[in-house]
Amino acid sequence: PLLIDAHGCTRLWATRQRSVHGCEQTHTYMSPSWLVLAAAAVAVRLAPAPSPASAVARAAASRPRSALVAQVSSAALLKQSEVLELLSEAADPQLAPPGTAAAGADSPPDIVSLGLVRAVRIGDDSASVTVQVELPREAAEAGAEGRLREVCTQLLREGLPWAAEVELRFDIAPPPPPPPPPPPPPPQLGDRADAADDAADAIREMRSESGAEAGVGSVGKIVAVASCKGGVGKSTTAVNLACALAAAGRRVGLVDVDVHGPSLPTMVRAEGELQVDGELLVPLEAHGLKLMSMGFINPGALPLRGAKVTPIVQQLIGRTAWGELDYLIVDMPPGTGDVQLTLSQDFEVSAAVLVTTPQRLSFVDVVKGVEMFDKVGIPTVAVMENMAGLRLDAASERLEAIGAAHSLPPAAMRELRELLREEQPVFGASHVQRLRDMWGISASFSLPLLPELARAADAGVPSFVSQPEGEAAGVYRQLAAALEGELERLDAAPRPEILYLPVERRIVIALADGTQQSITPLELRRLCRSPANRPDALPADVEPLDFVPTGNYAVSVRWSDGHQSLL
Fold it and tell me: Does the pTM of the predicted model rise above 0.70?
């Protein structure tokens, strides 16, 4: 992706490989400038060239010099795009990465697609261009610099009639860092009593080595508020939970990582414009919260493919100047895709709060959410069930007048009052108790359909702030207290350790009080209630491959026949 810095410089930042849980992954590292100007770049490519009197030009002229967007013109963006388009034809066989196309192939890679164009600067007079290219040492030593200089000069002089002066600068890339040492082999179950602690330490080391936590180094706990289904009130829960924690005296940040459909700018009206401090985004503030959202950067639509969303999420969380925080609440987009994986792999997330409704479809998605967080080692500590019933309060207020107007008998009035007082389960029965039974998630709360919640969200003032003594505020206060309590218990209480002894074919559970319990693999597998499990047709040699704690009391077991149990 293009990056445009405060000096009108466009960069194509290189990607690097890193290993996460044994898997090679590619990450693109970007300057916050790209976030600030991505919308402008899209608009420039899709719309006709703006006139100097356009709203963008007027806004740029009125903003202070500290705002990056004020330092880049649409004309410069267009010229930089022209330069990059021309340079995409500059290729050399010596640039083929190791293990891909060999030197001399029919279609050698170009310097743009390889990320070798480090900067494109347009002069203040818009009549000169400077291009900085960084070549691998092997390619430079093989003569690629001379060939590319000749090709690039010809392309730019013939393709840029407005450029009276073209300057090319070629640098040699520093040697790549040595490959990381291979991860240590996983501890053998039954080999050591502290195998679970060692595994957790290894996961923490891999996360810290990713280099993506620069902006969250002083954040105490990162809490994801998620749902695998849209439209269940997840953003409402995230905003009001953050407000409840702030009201309890905690330092709280709230980041909306739904890049395609950000809700935070609508639900919380923050004053001022987004600013940049060096390479960090400066969060907006409102109601005692530090706020960050793609909607603050680009209020309009921003069409992006999935590969471009992941770096933005890394930026919004990891390159924001959060400062000292007790909690960073992350409002997740629906689903179990790239954003969820990015959050779990690049940042140390302490816990997840899942949001659902009584609908069976929504409950099925909650199960998926618990399983997803289970797979990446994030405990689900609380569930919020919204729209858990409908109250006919408005009809109740009119009942007395209607009864008097039609002279309804007292017995009929009593029955009508009782009927209207009953909460109508328009989306079905609550699943809160089922969640408690399945995973031991005792911090499960319900809220009925409350019109004031929707009104508060539309007004840009969270319900917890506008109605601090209301029913919803009370539930969010309970949710915040329960979240803190669960996190404290996770930190303090040692979990039972589960070890498999393959020689004895026994599963040993070591409890915190020093006692032990044991069970055979077949006995444990028969306890699985999954519809996919067939207790009467289990292979005799089935054995567990690993155990992952889930929630407060449950454990996920991966079996040798491919089945996965949640027990």
Answer: no
